[in-house]
Write a structure and sequence with these properties.
By secondary structure, this protein is α/β, with parallel strands linked by helices. 35% of the residues lie in helices and 21% in strands. The protein has two domains: 149 residues, 3-Layer(aba) Sandwich (Rossmann fold); 143 residues, Response regulator (Rossmann fold). Strand 2, helix 1 and strand 3 form a beta-alpha-beta unit. It is elongated, with a radius of gyration of 21 Å. The N and C termini lie far apart (55 Å). 46% of the residues are buried.
């Protein structure tokens, strides 16, 4: 069922209140759209996503008043921003980051929500008034990049906490055979399980694939996992450029400005009358990555020249 065109949009980006008016143009919306943005964290990806969102709406000729609220990492600040959104009769809330998204889907049922910079749709708790652009890449994307970096490695080890990642590991188990890969998945249900699970992969895995998992991959476990990688000559695929700087062979990342554009595309559909529940969750459509050549040399690996040339960052 189509919604009537909406005039107010709330973007939740994280605590700083800003306002902007886009130029008038070809998009057939009635009046000015009021948007509330909640930004969860004070970090560059959030600002880049907000810039991409705003630029997209301006390019489409949407007249919008965008109120930005920064949470500075404090989720308790979201309630006031959402209350203001109701008072202003906002047409839409853009929540960038999990803190803002969790608050929005918990407290707002009468305003459409676009959530960005969240790990997966699990953060939306099946909210029918929310659309999402998630950070998580499809497992097929991650496994294909693994083949691009390490074409001769076929045995993929992965550690995971089933409470967080069972569905993702199940998806990878289904996808791996079609790509000529064998997945060795080891459950880690408590921190004390990690050493034994890791050692069980030493004679089986050609590569250790990192998935976002708060129990397995965190500041307390990073050194142990990276030392395991070097000691056993098993490359570790990290979660971010920070992991690559610490010693992971490579990590995929996102174009955060383009994620903002994707959020803008979803918002425009909603402003033009689409029901948020009809907009499928979207993964990042642009993949960037960083590479640690020092780690490659220590592991006696050669990264192909085209792969290096396409890297966003190369650590020598």
């Amino acid at each position: 069922m189509k919604r009537a065109p909406l005039r107010g949009v709330v973007l939740l980006v994280g605590g700083v209140a800003l306002a902007a008016t886009a130029t008038a143009g070809a998009v057939p919306l009635e009046g000015e759209a009021r948007i509330t943005v909640i930004v969860s964290q004070d970090a560059t990806p959030y600002l880049e996503a907000l810039d991409g969102f705003r630029s997209y709406l301006e390019a489409q000729g949407v007249r919008a008043k965008i109120d930005v609220h920064a949470l500075h990492g404090d989720g308790t600040l979201a309630g006031a921003a959402l209350q203001r959104a109701r008072q202003d009769r906002a047409a839409l809330v853009l929540a960038l980051g999990s803190l803002g998204a969790h608050a929005a889907v918990r407290e707002v049922r009468d305003i459409p929500i676009v959530a960005g910079l969240i790990l997966s749709t699990a953060d939306l708790v099946q909210s029918p008034n929310a659309a999402a652009v998630v950070l998580e890449f499809p497992v097929e994307t991650e496994l294909r990049f693994l083949q691009r970096f390490l074409p001769g490695q076929h045995n993929v080890g992965v550690l995971f906490n089933p409470a967080e990642n069972q569905a993702r590991i199940d998806a990878a188990t289904r996808a791996a055979p079609a790509l000529g890969l064998t997945l060795y998945a080891r459950r880690v249900q408590s921190p004390k399980d990690l050493p034994e699970a890791l050692e069980s992969l030493s004679s089986r895995a050609d590569v250790l694939w990192g998935v976002a998992d708060q129990m397995v991959l965190n500041s307390q476990t990073a050194r142990h996992i990276l030392l395991f990688s070097l000691r056993h000559q098993i490359p570790f695929v990290g979660l971010s450029a920070t992991w690559v700087k610490a010693g992971a062979l490579y990590a995929l990342d996102r174009d955060y400005n383009d994620i903002g554009v994707q959020c803008g595309e979803a918002a425009l559909k909603i402003l033009q009358g689409a029901d948020p529940s009809t907009i499928p969750p979207a993964p990042p459509r642009k993949v960037v990555y960083s590479v640690n050549l020092k780690t490659a040399r220590l592991l006696k690996l050669e990264i192909q020249a085209p792969v290096l040339r396409a890297a966003q960052a190369v650590i020598e």
